[in-house]
Amino acid sequence: MLLNSFVLGAAGAASHDGINGGTAIFQLVIFLVLLMLLKKFAWGPIMGIMKQREEFVANEIDSAEKNRIESAKLLEEQRALLKEARTEAKELIDNAKSQGELQRETIIADARKDAERLKNSALLEIEQQKEKAVTAIREQVSSLSVLIASKVIEKELSEQDQEKLINDYIQEVGENR
């Protein structure tokens, strides 16, 4: 019926040259009903979706900002740890160098002590060998002196014989050496 009066109103309006007040009110009411239906079924849900989208984007922005702050914090912590590790490594290297220097000095000092001990030992052995040689020469000189004395006693020597005896003695000492 409503449709019939709308169609009739439109047909009557076409036949009349003036504006029909009932038709205008009817069209205004239809327009307002249409606006309310749009508000209830279209505008409300669209605004709800837009609100949800706005909240989602705001949450994503907040989350991204939190992640950025956390990343910056972690980066700063990593830099501090790296700096600390470098400091520790430098300290370890410095300690190793000083330990190496101490060991080098200890090794050199020990080598010098060993060399000095070996030198002293060699000098002592040389001295002992020298003493043995001197003792052996003394013994030979003694026995040769006794031998010469016995030969001198056996015969009285002339000056020539005495020189010959001394030369023989020197020659014997040279051969025994």
Automatic annotation (TrEMBL):
Chain ranges passing through the membrane:
25-43
The record, for InterPro entries, names: ATP_synth_B-like_membr_sf, ATP_synth_b/b'su_bac/chlpt, ATP_synth_F0_bsu_bac, ATP_synthase_B_chain
Which is one GO molecular function term here?
proton-transporting ATP synthase activity, rotational mechanism
Q: What start-end ranges are recorded for coiled-coil regions in this protein?
A: 72-132
Give the UniProt keywords, A-Z: ATP synthesis, Cell membrane, CF(0), Coiled coil, Hydrogen ion transport, Ion transport, Membrane, Transmembrane, Transmembrane helix, Transport
| Entry-linked Pfam families | ATP-synt_B
Q: Which NCBIfam families match?
A: ATP_synt_b, PRK13453.1
Q: Known PANTHER family for this protein?
A: ATP SYNTHASE SUBUNIT B, ATP SYNTHASE SUBUNIT B', CHLOROPLASTIC
Its family remark reads: Belongs to the ATPase B chain family.
Q: What does this protein do?
A: Component of the F(0) channel, it forms part of the peripheral stalk, linking F(1) to F(0).
Instruction: Indicate the quaternary assembly.
Output: F-type ATPases have 2 components, F(1) - the catalytic core - and F(0) - the membrane proton channel. F(1) has five subunits: alpha(3), beta(3), gamma(1), delta(1), epsilon(1). F(0) has three main subunits: a(1), b(2) and c(10-14). The alpha and beta chains form an alternating ring which encloses part of the gamma chain. F(1) is attached to F(0) by a central stalk formed by the gamma and epsilon chains, while a peripheral stalk is formed by the delta and b chains.
Could you identify this protein by its name?
ATP synthase subunit b
Identify the species of origin.
Niallia taxi
